[in-house]
Write a structure and sequence with these properties.
heterodimer, A: mainly alpha, ABC transporter involved in vitamin B12 uptake, BtuC, two-stranded antiparallel ribbon, 14 helices, 2 strands, globular, B: mainly alpha, 72% helix
Chain lengths: 308, 280
């Protein structure tokens, strides 16, 4: 990393930490939006970590929902404190991902995508049926950190910093080569001695852990969860559109993509109320057709041109 | 219960055979398949509610309209990613699916709608069993169309061209088959079949913009059970799904809700035990 980038990152971090103290005075609604954006960024980046192995998961909502429900149920039915319950939610999501991964990560491309989508939908159906999980009515969860928005914001910012760190480490270590080899050609990678399934399961577990903790966070900050929201397809879709829009397999791309998309969504939500997800469909199609490397690719081309 | 399951599988077969066609011939796994079905269903509902046209009579019109729409989407978008990585193809159709679904939400709101045709509650008895007339009609039409597609693929020139392209794109092109036109036709037929299934759904169930995903998933379950790209296995696979769902609904307490999860179990079991499909 160059010194210039280091400084700009530090400035961004300071601004991000200072932001809630200003927003809480000036316009608390901005704080709410910022929390939403960061949740989205964590989901997008954690989804991207699995995507680096070439696997397209449509189950991010499943782990998000698992985290949310586990944590809410543990606090409500077992009387656990909020933070340990959230960690337990994230752990359960990671464990389930390990199990599902061992079963399904031998499948490639389309088969894996279908299996994960079906898994997510089934969790929703099950949660919808069981009285224990509050069925279709949902659950009311106790607030995180006494419901103070500023501290809550800093909590999710910490999670974002953690996932950025993990993602950065993954792209800096031997894992980067293993993941890229698997993505480019699985058979060759296996022949070269890369333990394909083990790396994929590892990526899946890391990815699910962060989705789980974000889901748990959501439950204790917005205080209400229902099957249709927690296991919403919108979560899975958003988590994959943001990295594709921002730039796949990078650390900055998914985060930037998430921020940009969420701002557009926020605007559209107030403009057309329902059906605003249409923008995700449109962006997905346009990006795939016209800018396959996302915003990061466009940025790189522009910089390249300037230099030439 | 068996009859109930069999009748239902007719509609499933029709919904899935189009997807099998697009997977088998073009090699595109179309995540937007259920959305074409949903659009067909809305078309059927709208023609019935506004002009009193019976959804069954409107089928040729609706199928033709969606055929044109499907063809346009193929030309405008899908054609461009035929040689792109599988991931991109999947994401593109997924994007189209989200787009169409939310377009429907914006145009018609998310409320479910029901077309109440005069014979909706009519029942007929066959050999001592009583079945609903709409269900019976839908089953007969769906099976006829599915079998007709098999006949077209097996007997006619264009069907043989499709099978040739499916086996070897380059070889077929060398023999003078216009591959692009065959693809266009296959995609159009695939979406038109989905639309037909959708229009018949208006006879029995409510229609909302969100039904597309459910049918995409069920159609996926069926073609996974049949084996991806295996068009002939679709009818058997539909029977497996229809019967298992009916079984769960009848024998499991509160089975109506659980039946929604049956297709996942089937997908997972088949993918783990026999990823090439059961009927191959």
């Amino acid at each position: 990393m160059t010194a210039g980038r280091g400084i700009s990152l530090a400035v961004a971090l300071i601004l991000a930490v200072a932001f809630p103290f200003w927003a809480n005075e000036a316009q608390p609604y901005y704080l709410q939006i910022a929390i939403n954006i960061i949740i989205f960024a964590v989901l997008a980046l954690s989804w991207d970590i699995l995507a680096r192995t070439g696997q397209l998961s449509l189950a991010h909502a499943a782990f998000y929902g698992l985290g949310a429900y586990t944590s809410a149920l543990l606090t409500l039915r077992a009387g656990l404190a909020v933070i340990p319950a959230m960690l337990a939610g994230a752990l359960l999501a990671a464990i389930v991902a390990a199990g599902l991964g061992v079963l399904t990560l031998r499948l490639r491309g389309i088969y894996f995508a279908i299996a994960t989508l079906a898994f997510s939908e089934t969790l929703r159906v099950t949660t919808n049926q069981l009285q224990f999980t509050g069925a279709a009515t949902g659950l009311v969860a106790p607030p995180l950190l006494g419901g103070q928005r500023v501290v809550q914001y800093l909590a999710i910012l910490t999670v974002l910093v953690l996932v950025v760190l993990v993602s950065w480490l993954v792209n800096r270590s031997r894992l980067y080569f293993a993941f890229t080899a698997i993505r480019t050609n699985e058979d060759v990678a296996a022949t070269m001695g890369v333990d394909v399934v083990r790396y994929k399961v590892f990526a899946f577990v890391v990815s699910a852990f962060f989705a789980g903790i974000t889901g748990a966070y959501y439950a204790h900050v917005f205080l209400f969860i229902s099957p249709i929201e927690a296991y919403s397809l919108a979560v899975s879709v958003g988590a994959l559109v943001a990295p594709i829009f921002g730039g796949l397999y990078t650390t900055a791309g998914p985060v930037i993509g998430a921020v940009a998309l969420r701002l557009v969504e926020e605007f559209l939500r107030s403009a057309i109320r329902s059906g605003y997800l249409i923008i995700y469909g449109l962006i997905l199609a346009v990006v795939i057709l016209y800018m396959p490397s996302g915003l990061a690719g466009v940025w790189a081309t522009m910089r390249g041109r300037r230099r030439v | 219960m068996v009859i109930f399951g069999v009748l239902r599988s007719g509609l499933y077969a029709l919904a899935a055979v189009g997807l099998a066609l697009s997977v088998g011939v073009i090699g595109i796994v179309n995540f937007a398949h259920g959305e074409f079905l949903m659009l067909g269903a809305f078309l059927g509902y709208w023609l019935y509610a506004s002009y009193g046209v019976d959804p069954l009579a409107a089928i040729p019109f609706g199928a033709a309209a969606i055929f044109v729409l499907g063809g346009a989407i193929y030309r405008g978008a899908i054609q461009r990613v035929l040689r792109a990585p599988e991931l991109n193809q999947m994401l593109l159709t997924f994007g189209i699916s989200i787009f169409l679904q939310n377009l429907a939400v914006i145009l018609w709101t998310g409320d479910p709608r029901v077309a109440t045709v005069p014979y909706k509650a009519t029942a007929v008895s066959i050999g001592g069993f009583t079945v609903g007339l709409p269900q019976l009609i839908v089953f007969v039409i769906a099976m006829t169309l599915t079998l007709a597609l098999y006949a077209v693929l097996g007997r006619t020139r264009i069907g043989k061209a499709m099978r040739a392209v499916a086996q070897n794109r380059l070889g077929a092109a060398l023999l003078g088959i216009e591959v692009e036109r065959v693809y266009l036709l296959a995609f159009g037929i695939s979406t038109a079949l989905a639309a037909t299934a959708g229009m018949m759904i208006t006879l029995q169930l409510s229609v909302s913009p969100y039904i597309g995903l459910l049918y995409t998933l069920k159609a996926f379950a069926i073609i996974v059970i049949a084996g991806l790209g295996n068009i002939n296995g679709v009818i058997y696979a539909s029977l497996v799904l229809g019967l298992s769902e009916a079984f769960v609904e009848f024998y499991v307490p509160h089975g109506g809700g659980w039946a929604e999860g049956v297709f996942f179990l089937l997908i997972l079991l088949v993918l783990i035990v026999r990823p090439r499909g059961l009927f191959r």
